[in-house]
Specification:
- This protein is of the alpha+beta class.
- The protein is about 35% helix and about 10% strand.
- It has one domain.
- The radius of gyration is 19 Å and the shape is globular.
């Protein structure tokens, strides 16, 4: 059994948006939390977090991949059966098929990440401009395409999957979450702008939900 690895993240409060989508940080309390990693080593998680932060950076409009905890989402997915390619047929031949058929190679998502991270080298030690240049040099690779897709998924997934911390991704785009009905709001906002606070699936159902990556 390998040594348990952790990612240290900084907690800076709760990010909320007004109706005009202006972000505001409230109840800020500086502190650090050690999150146990399921697949990555600390160094790998740091590189993935830094790369995702360049793909989806924070700016004046709102948070990015770092604040949304995208690396935790990716770590959990790679540790799951998906990361081992359990759900994809992997028999030969392995061909460069047409784009509409998707990835046809022999490597699992885990293997793609491990090879891709090796190609990044000392990514976290680079300045932002140099990081962007390094990513541009591999943007046609399967690793970059997978990382980009996972970054977007981690920004806007249900928080139970590890990303979209504090539902800040949903707040960023005004997505209310998987609400089943708006009946309770129909007669309460006459003539007023209405932007409901997003609710996760667990909040909508009122009970704990086991994400697919945690199922036995």
């Amino acid at each position: 059994m390998r040594r348990r690895h952790f990612l240290t993240v900084t907690c800076g409060g709760v990010l909320v948006y007004s109706l005009d989508r202006a972000p505001e940080l409230i109840a800020a309390q500086d502190g650090k939390v050690r999150v146990p990693l399921r697949f990555f080593t600390e160094a790998e998680a740091g590189a993935v977090a830094a790369a995702a932060a360049r793909i989806f950076p924070s700016d004046s409009h709102g948070p990015g991949a770092e604040q949304a905890g995208v690396v935790i989402y990716i770590d959990r997915q790679l540790a799951s059966p998906y990361g081992r390619d359990r759900y994809r047929y992997r028999g030969e031949p392995f061909l460069d098929g047409s784009p509409e058929f998707g990835y046809q190679g022999s490597l699992t998502p885990r293997q793609i990440y491990r090879q891709g991270l090796a190609s990044l080298g000392d990514f976290t030690g680079l300045e932002a401009a140099a990081q962007d240049e390094r990513l541009r040099s591999i943007e046609k690779s399967e690793f970059f395409q997978l990382l980009r897709r996972h970054t977007i998924e981690g920004m806007f997934c249900d928080p139970m999957h590890g990303g979209n911390t504090g539902k800040i991704g949903w707040q960023l785009i005004g997505f209310p979450g998987p609400r089943m009905s708006y009946l309770r709001d129909v007669d309460t906002h006459h003539g007023q702008a209405f932007r409901p606070a997003p609710e996760s699936l667990e909040e909508v159902l009122g009970r704990k939900v086991t994400p697919g990556e945690d199922e036995p």
